[in-house]
Each structure stands twice: as structure tokens, then as C-alpha cells.
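Continuing from the previous page...

OK, I double-checked the sequence for Major facilitator superfamily (MFS) profile domain-containing protein against my notes and this is the correct one:
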Amino acid sequence: DLFGVSMIIPLLSHHVKALGASPTVAGIVSTYGLLQLLSSTVVGSWSDVVGRRYSLLTCLLLSAFGYGLLGMSTSITWFVLARIPVLFKHSLSICRALLSDLVSESERPLVMGHFNAASSVGFILGPVVGGYLTEHEGGFYTSSFTCATIFLVNALVWLLPWSEALIPCSDTNASNDASKGCHDNNCSAPGKQRSGLRWKEVSLFQPAWRQLSSVASKIMWDLFLVRLLMAIAIMLYYSNFSLALEERFSLRPKVTGYLISYSSTLGALAGFLVGPVTKLYGNNMPTLLLHSTVLTCSLIFMYAAAPSVWQVVLTSTFFTISTTIGRTCITDLELQRGGVRASGTLIGAGQSVTSVGRIVAPLLSGLTQEFSPCGPPSLGVILALSAVGLLLIRIPKWDRK
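Thanks. Re-ran it with the corrected sequence; updated C-alpha cells here:
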């Protein structure tokens, strides 16, 4: 999924300009975050209602259709039409919800960490292949059709018959909602095996708003606020990274690119650390989230005040690790508090919160860069400190509950 998408993302702005668009029209690329904001929670809730199999298959096929249209876009109109299926580009969120259905609560951080690591590897390799294809004539169109083919192959693989020994979805100390049985009847008793997954038979037209309303009573404003604050802080860290290093240390873009690739590689490897770290903390996710947030805040401050390039390299090394662990922690806490049966809705709502950060962060970055190249990360420190303070206030209340 991410291998195909990451081939396209770096090339979109160049392609829309090549179609003759003005800089204002070229800004249509930024509507991705807005579309994701509007659709993430709805599609996640829809997957809770109709089942993971049908919702994931629909998302894969519509994504393939959208990227196929992108490969045929020879005008701005076709380009805009090709971006509409982005509303259903939620295959990764549904996969995360399905994983939370199939594994126990104690194993969930380990599995999610491995899943994030695989996703990061795809995002590292994709831009390299996309850049290589772009050097040839019609390279963007080749990349688009390649991406569409990848989504079609994923859909075909998802349709293949398969059998799996399933794991109980909840531990003995899990909540009553989770222990009643996982979504789509995917849970089975230990040792039992089914000849393939049996999916809950629900009308495809059953309104998803019922699932949304059932989760509304459990809405976790504190977790979502922490997620929003940290999402904006992390995006501010990356927002003017290349430009700031060039202005502060006269670093060439080529060297900055190597540093970004180095950080991305570490981010992929950090996914394998999530499981051991959660075991070290005894699966105490609130404490782990607090510590990772404090570490992330400290590293953003060190980057903003870095007197040399080597301190930037040091902060980049640990920053990707802390953010990877923090993202896994907050997703796991959302599923713990909201109940695994609403995992699609909860993960979709989390993606919507992150999309808000994608929309707000560029604006805040532009405003703060007017004062200093260190403005965006400095504001990120303030937001991360606010998240730490909120966690210090709320975690004791979570423990009492």
C-alpha cells in the first residue's frame, strides 16, 4: 500500500504544474488532509458495521480506480476527479482494526509495531522507485498505473480463500465489551480452528451512524487532544527541516536528504522495539505514553537549540524511535478505553484527528518561520509540553477508573 502511494506523493505537485496549473490550483494537492478528515471516522465506523472484508475490498478497489484515473489525467479536470476516491483510501486503518480484532490485548502493541515497521519500509522504497521512473518519458503515468496495479493485486490477494488459526481477542482481564466476542465473529476459543474467516452478515446499507453514536458516549477527548497536540508538534519538527538546516548550518540539500533517509530507516526499525519496550513497562501503556511524550518534547527542544549538525543527527536518531512508540501507545490506549468492537470507528477517529494536524501545521509553520528558522520546532515544544501536562493530569484519573 504505502510503497505504491509513496511513489506518487512526491510527484503530484510537479505533475499538476506540468498540466499548466497556477500555484493556487496546485494547492489542490493539499486537500488530501481535508478529505481524510471528513471520511476517516465514517469509513472506520462503516467497517465496524459491514465487516472488515467488504470494507477493505471496497477501499482497495476504489483506490486502484483513483490511481488509474490519475495515470490518465492529462488535464486539471481529470486530476481533480482522480483525487475524489481518496475519500476511501483507508486500507491501512481497516488493516489496523482487523489486527486489533484478531490478537489479544497483550500482544496488540507488538503486532502493531511490526505492522508500522512494514509500512515504513514501503514508504522508504517507494520514493526511490518513483524518482527513477520519473526520469524516463511518461514516468509519472507509469508510476500511477504501477500504483493502481499494486492495489488491484492487494484486492485479489484479499479475495483468495485462506484459513487461519485465530487467537482470542481479549485477555481474561479485558473489558466486558471486548470479551463478548470480536467484530465479525473472528474470535474463537484457544485451540479451535475455523476453515476460513466467517464474517458478520450485515446489510451493506446499514447506516454507519449507529456505530458512531454508540461510541460517542465513550468519546475520549483527552486522548484525542494529546494526539492532536503531538501530531502538530511532530509535523512542525519536520515542516521546514531542510530549509532550516540550510539556513542554520549551510547544509546542502543532498546531505539533508541523507539525514531524512537515515531517520526514516530508524523509524522502520523502531517498530520492532515496541513489543520489547511494552513488556519492559509491564504493558503499562499510560506510563509509556507519558515517558515517550516527555522524550519527544525534549528532543524537539534539543533540535531547536542545536548548536551543531551533530546534535541534529543525535536528536533525529532518538526522535523517530520516541514518535514510533508514542503513536503505537496512543492507538492501543484508544482501543483499550473504547472497546475492541468499535476498533474501526476509533482508529478512523484517530486518523481524523491526525488529519486536522496536517491541515493546521503548515499554517502555523509558515507564521512562525516569519520570525526565525527555529520558530516551528519552538512552537512544537510548547505544544508537546501542553500534551505532557494534560497526561500528568489525566493519567491518575484513568488509573482510578
